[in-house]
Amino acid sequence: MGYKEIEMKKPRIKHVMAIGATCLLVVFIVIIVCDVLVTSNAKARTFDDVSDVPHNKVGLLLATSPITPQGEHNYYFDNRVKAADELYKAGKVDFIIASGGDYTRDHTNGCDEPSAIRDSLIARGIPENRIVLDYDGTRTLNSIAKAREIYDLDSLTLISQKYHNERALYLADKYGLHALGYNAAPSPVRSKRIKNTLREYLARVKMFIDLKHESIPDFEKCDVYFELPDNQTTATTTSFLDLFYGMEKDSTGKYFDPLLDTIPGLIHKECKSIWYSPMDSVRFEMSMGLYIDKSYPSDIVKDTVFSKLNAVIPTGFSYDIDEKQDSLLKIGVNPAQSADAFIRGWEKIFKKASSLNGYNSNFSNYPMIIGSRGCAVCHKIYEDSIWATYIVEMSVDYHGSNGCPSSADYYTVNKSTGKILSIKEFMAQRQSTIERQIRKEYVKTATSKGFNPSDYTAEELIGKANGIAKLNKGILLYFHPYNIGCGAEGQYNLIIPVRE
After folding, report:
1. Strand partners for 289
2. CB-based contact 205:34 (threshold 8 Å)
3. Helix %, strand %, coil % for the chain, to 5?
4. pLDDT, tens digit, for every residue of 5-31?
5. Can you give the pTM of this predicted structure?
6. What DSSP string describes 218-256?
7. Which residues pair with 74 in a beta bridge?
8. 3-state SS, residue 138
9. What is the side-by-side strand order in the sheet with 467-471?
């Protein structure tokens, strides 16, 4: 009897094992399918290089605690904060939402995640008014849903590790958010990477279950009156876009400028000497005026604009009796110094150039004609938390011709990296919306200036522009004289209103 019972149990055990194996296989397939769906949906939508990330007004940092439940240091936290800092300082986001939870009372080694993120970002130099604390981010679902339903965002940049960004992108799609992800580095600890990878497989399955059952996000700490600050509120600007600065003389013959001489913090330096031209048998007063800002947002901005100024000042010297002067001017002065030292350096160069062209008694019979003058300007005309825009100009007056040639360049410089905003980079971020505006504003501006606009397409106008810059009024495309046949001598400036 006992033998028969054993024989009967064997098939039952095999049957149970078969069912168990089938269940495991189904679970494995479900996990793989969920993983493939999430990964394939995020393809080409997450980025490892900050320079490749398109601009979004808001970055959503999906929080984690700086300390693990075991009391260990959490490198995932460090790397997410670092990624958010990189995005902000590269001008890729204007605001950062720190979305997490406050676990100080509920968990061992619990932390106030949004506050920890804010403090870490401020320590890296990001202004506090650019950081928004969201305490409902206890789940990725909550963070995404709140960004859409409460903050009323249409697009954003997700900030987390790649695996997390991929899952968040799937949720963002379900909530109608146009999102992309910037990938923070993973933990350098191998065991932590393995643990998080395994947990992520289950989190993806859980996400599909939530979506299937229409799980409702929980907003306990919702601020229904939330509104992002205007990212231009801290901007400062001086709006002037004219040319030919510093060309006026008072009754004593001294050069002045009715605008530049009234701007605080702008250093004004004059240099002059009598030069001669044996080819024309004339002598004349050569003068150089310098108007340069005394202070700068950062050393890297100062070095960047001083390098540009070094390159443009030599165009103000219109006479060259030997090749030594040309070599002297091209060397310029060291940009990595104070504004005062920069000016003193150019004053010395002017004196050396004057010694090469200097008047002496051999030319006393030469007639004195109207002087030749160059006037250089380097002045900040716009600044916000990320960018500073400078006008760098050398106006030239050849014996009363007043400005032939004269043109100004405008450089929008990243205050942290020194990188100059380029037309290519700007268009890559806004290609779909900006071209119609460019053509529209060109027609409007041309008509207001009294000439018939040409049939240039927006693409052709962009191709002819000498550069791009950021102003309070919008984005400036500038064209040096005759670049677009504007019907008058002088530079053509086109301002396109752009909503951030």
Report:
1. 270, 375
2. yes
3. 40, 25, 35
4. 555 556 677 766 767 777 777 778 878
5. 0.60
6. --SS--TT--PPPTTTT-EE-------TT-EE-TTS-EE
7. none
8. coil
9. 467-471, 474-479, 492-496
Give the DSSP H/E element, type plus range, for residue 146: helix 140-149
379, 238 Cβ separation under 8 angstroms = yes
Backbone angles phi, psi at 338, to 5 degrees: -70, 165
CA distances 89 to 113, 261, 386, 417, 500, Å, are: 22, 33, 6, 8, 16
The closest of 165, 149, 168 to 217, measured between CA atoms, is 149
- Any idea which residue has 């048998």 for tokens? 281
Nearest to 283 by CA among 335, 321, 340: 321
Rounded Cα gap, residues 497 and 242, in angstroms: 19
Residue-wise pLDDT tens digits, 399-422: 766 545 567 899 999 988 899 998
Please enumerate in sequence order all residues whose Cβ is within 8 A of that of 475, keeping only pairs 6 or more positions apart, or say none: 426, 468, 469, 495, 496, 498
Distances (CA, A) of 260 to 242, 256, 268, 314: 12, 8, 9, 21
Tokens, residue 198: 């395994």
Q: Give one DSSP letter per residue of 295-330, joined into a string.
A: --S-HHHHHHHHHHHHHHGGGG----SSHHHHHHHH
Q: Fill in the amino acid letter for 258.
A: P
Which tokens go with 387? 């960018």
In angstroms, the CA 158 to CA 92 distance is 12
**13 Cβ neighbours under 8 A, 6+ residues apart:** none
